[in-house]
Design a protein that fits this description.
mainly alpha; single chain; elongated
């Protein structure tokens, strides 16, 4: 699990339902799970290449990395890069599948968590609204 998301989740656990706070929390979390930019991917690939003293692929090869990795959030991509730098045993740029193998599970987990929190918030909003309407 991403270090960033773990810290974020730890900070919101125990926050009481508050209809002004929760939308901000959901929006903030949603912004962190947004797809990364080509620049984010380029920085990750250049960092790995520089650390391992290897060349990066030509433009055609880079386009494949961009196309495949752009769906993942920058924070997860950074965690993936750090994992590769610490654990990778070969002085070559990992194939795109080696990135996606590390990224897909945490991405799906965090996306699912965000969806669950969002559904819970809207259920609370519905209950709150229904409760208020009943007392009019």
């Amino acid at each position: 699990m991403s270090n960033f998301f773990m810290k974020f989740k730890k900070n919101i656990i125990g926050i009481q339902y508050n209809k002004t706070i929760w939308p901000n929390i959901i929006n903030r979390m949603a912004s962190y799970i947004q797809p990364c930019t080509r620049k984010d991917i380029a920085v990750v690939l250049e960092t790995i290449a520089s650390t391992f003293s290897i060349n990066i692929p030509n433009e055609t090869g880079l386009e494949q990395y961009f196309r495949i990795l752009q769906k993942y959030p920058a924070s997860l991509l950074k965690d993936c890069m750090e994992d590769i730098l610490v654990k990778y045993k070969y002085a070559r740029l990992p194939l795109p599948v080696e990135f996606t193998d590390r990224l897909e599970a945490p991405y799906e987990y965090h996306l699912g968590w965000l969806r669950k929190i969002t559904r819970t918030f809207y259920k609370l909003e519905t209950v709150s609204y229904t409760h208020l309407r009943a007392h009019e």
